[in-house]
Each structure stands twice: as structure tokens, then as C-alpha cells.
Amino acid sequence: MSIRWITELLGTAPAAEIRNLTEMELVDVRDLVDKAGNRPDAVKEKILAGVQCLRNGSKAVVCCDYGISRSNAVAAGILAVHNQIPFLDAVRMVQEKTGETEIKLAPLEAVRRAVEGDASNCKVKDRRTILVTGARGFIGTAVCKQLVANQFEVIAPSREQLDIEMGSTQLNLLAAQYNVDCIIHLANPRVYTSNIALGKTLAMLRNVLEVCTTLDISMVYPSGWEIYSGYVGKLFVDETVPAFAHGPYGDTKYLAELMIQQFQRTSDLRCTVMRSSPVYGTGSDRPKFIYNFIDKACHSEPIVTHHYLNADAELDLLHIDDFTDAIIRVCIQKYIGVINVGTGITTSTRVIAEMLKKELGSKSTVQQKQIESYTACISMNYQKANRVLDWKPKIMIEEGLKQLLLDHQK
Q: Is the dihedral of CA 401, 138, 183, 243 positive or negative?
């Protein structure tokens, strides 16, 4: 028998495995659906039946087909009502005792509403509340700082507090608890350029998308120039240029955008996709080549750059302050859509090496290595961002590198 006891009197189990039990009361929730559409009165009836059992001192087992989503959601509702504890605490207790980290959001949300009502969604707030995943990362740290400066209420859970690789349940409850208006999804797997990371990234994104559609929360998602990385040669891209990704990371961003589009087609998802050129600045070790160049220059060692069959390696580098400014403007204006952000200018790695060498007074030589393949030199056309957000980059590469070196030398 696979009853998973949450308390001495309350457990959950698959219905088929406890059909003939007579020494305990069954709360059969198989007539509820494990998706959206359960009526509040039907859900409340199940909760009250379980509560009555506990008040009578009887053992109660909540059962559904597999003993996972509907049963655990209703069990959390029973615990919350009977013990008079917050629903979030009840769910955590159910997850801890049953070992089920994921409960489907639709039945869970139906139970939460049956327990708490819709009062939380009717509160009049002085400030919009934004939840940031990946808040402790390079971009997340900068974004949170500017959100606070612009009078947003910011929820910034750490990975230890909220691991969205494990499912959407905790994120859903956290967003509901704080009446979140928007989620800025910046979290990535720790290693995010491998084939394994592709699957993890998409799973994390889907968890966030499910929460946004379940609670009617808008979303900001940072895509990137990599969705154009399959092109060869110099290209000045606006939002109308078809995606043409290359490599695991580019494929990941492309598939992520397709998933967002699918949610937009099948639900009322409100999402802003921000395709940025590579972001650099103090607080990050990316792009790696910049820091490799700095290290070589500081030790007067040769700096090696790459020349491909069609061109030098070139990048449109965007300073973190400019990217953060674009995100804040999206949040302030509640813009929904796809926008490209960058400086619109590519700079070769050879030129960057010369800039760093000059600023550091280095005796390094700058050398080039021939690469027997072709490269994409993508610059981002930011005219739409300028039009809809009144945004344009303010920090060009020379100033950005000088600032980076000053911070690096402190």
C-alpha cells in the first residue's frame, strides 16, 4: 500500500491501491480534473470533507489516479484550513512529506483560490511587484538595483530559495503570495551552452510560462543575437529578419522563442522578448575573450585574435547599464512584443585588443590566428526600441572598456 502520510491522520495515494480499505475515510478527487476548469464549490466540497474527517479524529486519505497532483493539491487545502496555516506552508509540508516536488498548477491554483479566495488579486497596490529569476547573477543584480531605484517592489529569490529546474509549484505560490505583476526570467542552468543545458533551459522556461499564464502575469525574457548566428558575414538585423540559429546556445534561444510563441497562441500570455547583443560590464567574466585579453596584456604576453575566411571576429557589445535601462523601460511602459537592443556597431576583437593594450600601457603584441570557417558579424538595429521605448545606447565600446578596466584594477 503506497499511502504517503503527511500527518498522522492525513495522507495521499493512488485510488486503485486503496479501494478496499475500510479503516479510514477516503476523499476521492478523481471527479476533479488535473487541468483548468474545476468549479470553486466542487473543490471546496472536497476540502471540507477532509477537514471534517480530521476534526472527527478519523484517518483521511485523499486519492486520485496517481496520487500526485489533484490529491496533493486538495491535501494542502485540507491542511491549510484545518491547521489554519498559510496555503504556501501547507503545500511545502505536503511536498516535503510526499517527496513530490511538482504539483500541476491548474488544480493547485483552484485549491488555493478555494482556500484564500481572490482577495489577494483585488488589493490596490501603490507599486507594481516584479519577480526576478536569476536575481543573483550578473544581469539580475543590475536589474534588481534599478528596479528598486524606479520604485518597483522586487521579489528576488535565490536559487536555494527557488529552484525552477525542479518545477513550477513553488514559483506559482510565491508569485500568488506577493501578487506579482511581472516576471523577469533571467535564470539559466549553471552551465548553459551544452546540449544538456538546452533541455534544462527549456524546462525552466516552461515552468515560468505556466505560472505566467495561470496567474495572468506578464513576462520579460532575454533572448539574444545568437538566434541570428547561422548567418555568414556582416548583418544589421531588425526584428523582421528571420531567425537562423547555429550551435547549442543559439538553438536554445530559438527554441525558447518558439515555446513563447506557442504559449501566446494557446493562451493570453503577455511577453516581451528582448534580443540583445552580447552584454558586458563589471560583475561578469563574459565575454571571456575580453578578460583573456586583459590577462595577457597585464603580463605583456601575445594577444591572439581570430580571422575567419570571410572577416575578423566582430561583435556588437552592449554595456550592462544600457541593457538594464532597456529592461526597466519595458517594465515602466508595460511594452509587449519583440525588440532588438544593441549599439548597432560591431567592433573586431583585434581592435578591442589594441584598445586594451593602449589603456593598460602593455607591451603585448596583437597577433591573428586564421580560422578555417566562416563567421557571423551581427549588429542589432535598435530603431524599434528607440521608437517604442525611447531607448538608445549611451555607452560605446571605448568608454565601456575604460570603465571595465578601472573597476578591474580596484
A: positive
Lowest mean pLDDT segment, chosen from 65-69, 145-149, 301-305, 369-373 = 65-69
Q: Please name which of 244, 240, 250 lies closest in space to residue 231, comparing C-alpha atoms.
A: 244
Same domain flag for 77 and 192: no
Does 122 map to a domain?
no
Beta pairing partners, 220: 184, 272
Cell digits for 22?
A: 475500510
Do 290 and 241 lie in one domain? The reply is yes
Q: Residue 62 forms beta bridges with which residues?
A: 12, 27
Residue 196: is it exposed, middle or buried by C-beta count within 10 angstroms (0-12/13-18/19+)? exposed
User: Looking at the structure, do residues 113 and 135 belong to the same domain, yes or no?
Assistant: no
* Same domain assignment for residues 217 and 326: yes
Q: What is the pLDDT of residue 147?
A: 98
pLDDT tens digits, residue range 216-274? 999 999 999 999 999 999 999 999 999 999 999 999 999 999 999 999 999 989 999 99
Q: Residues 29-67: pLDDT tens digits?
A: 999 998 889 999 999 999 999 999 999 999 999 999 988
Q: Which residues, in sequence order, are CB contacts of 295 under 8 Å at separation 6+?
A: none
What pLDDT is stored for residue 120 in this prediction?
47
Q: Does residue 401 form part of some domain?
A: yes
Strand runs (DSSP E) across 308-352, as ranges?
Answer: 314-315, 318-319, 337-341, 347-348
Nearest to 175 by CA among 134, 218, 142: 218
Span 275-292, mean pLDDT? 95
Among residues 68, 90, 117, which one ends one of the domains?
117
Do residues 100 and 135 share a domain? Answer: no
Q: Do both 103 and 168 map to the same domain?
A: no
- Provide the percentage of residues in the chain whose pLDDT is more than 70: 96
Its domain, for residue 49, covers 4-117
Residue where a domain terminates, one of 68, 94, 117: 117
> Rounded to the nearest 5°, which phi and psi values hold at 300?
55, 35
Same domain (yes/no): 373, 284:
yes
Check which CATH number belongs to the domain holding 87 and give it: 3.90.190.10
Residue 8 has pLDDT above 50, yes or no: yes
Is-contact 214 106, C-beta < 8 A? yes
Task: Decide if 123 is inside a domain.
Answer: no
pTM: 0.90
Q: Where are the alpha helices (DSSP H) in 117-187?
A: 138-149, 169-177
| Direct distance between the N- and C-terminal alpha carbons of the chain, in angstroms, rounded to an integer | 64
What's the domain count of the chain?
Answer: 2
Helix, strand or coil for residue 380? strand
Q: Which has the higher per-residue pLDDT, 190 or 28?
A: 28
